[in-house]
Amino acid sequence: MAIQQTEPKTWTIQDKMNARKERQKKLRKLEKLVPVFLFLCAIISILTTLGILYTLVSSAVTFFSEVSFSEFFLNTDWKPWSGSFGILPLITGTLLITGIAILVAVPLGLASAIFLSEYASDRTRRIVKPLIEILAGIPTVVYGFFALTFVTPLLQNVIPDLKIFNALSGGIVVGIMIIPMIASLSEDAMSAVPNSIREGAYALGATRFEVAMKVVVPAALSGIIASFVLGISRAIGETMIVTIAAGQSPNLTLDPTQSIQTLTSFIVQGTSGDTGYGTTIYYSVYAVGITLFVFTLAMNLLSQYVSRKFREEY
Prior knowledge:
Order of helices and strands: HHEEHHHHHHHHHH
Helix content: over 70%
Number of strands: 2
Oligomer: single chain
Structural class: mainly alpha
Largest sheet: 2 strands, antiparallel
Low-confidence stretches: none
Number of helices: 12
Shape: globular
Distance between the termini: 78 Å
Strand order of the largest sheet: 1-2
Radius of gyration: 28 Å
């Protein structure tokens, strides 16, 4: 049987113009839908934040109907299973961990950023920067066991009385964890400084170190400080490292060799299976959570203020 062959369709110029008009018509309809989709995404983000805030506040109100503000914020004894709800030991523990982390992360992160921005060649930067950023991808539970099984025994060689659970090793490892955030954001801020400013400094006889410290760092100060503040916010909210390495002892102390408990590690402890639903201890988790939320919100607002205050436009 003979096979009937169809002739290929020949497109006229009018056909091509009509097809193009039809395609542009569909694209215009799609263009109208894109802002709606993006708006819905933004609304979902805002509603999620409001939902989290409502959950924290509504449960915290129940807690504060049973425990007074003065006892919660002024009492120095945190023993929720014995009826004592003074949050100060948890706040001092959180600030102690954060302070140690800052002492580790800020100098190392800033030095790494200066090296990558001012000293490293393009090839070295392409290799070293991703290697530093790998630290940000390690699960925090791994950091916690690293602090417990490697850093603490190492420190015990120097400090023999150091307890196995202590704030020092937890703070050091939290600092190591936030180094990539500070280094990467600071390096981005320094790389954004125009080369004309550097060349002007070199033309005046400045050395590379002087250009880095007296020209580039001040010019990128808003981005650098913003990276510090974001790193501090990350350290305040860290959970697994402090839970594993710093212990679960809510001591009101600033001694880094002692075992302490932070806000986040109590939240982990308070949400364990031993806590009955609807009890005062259960609602205390939300009261601690909203305290942590206020800390983090304050740091984010500070970051925005600093960025606006020290922003340089070229």
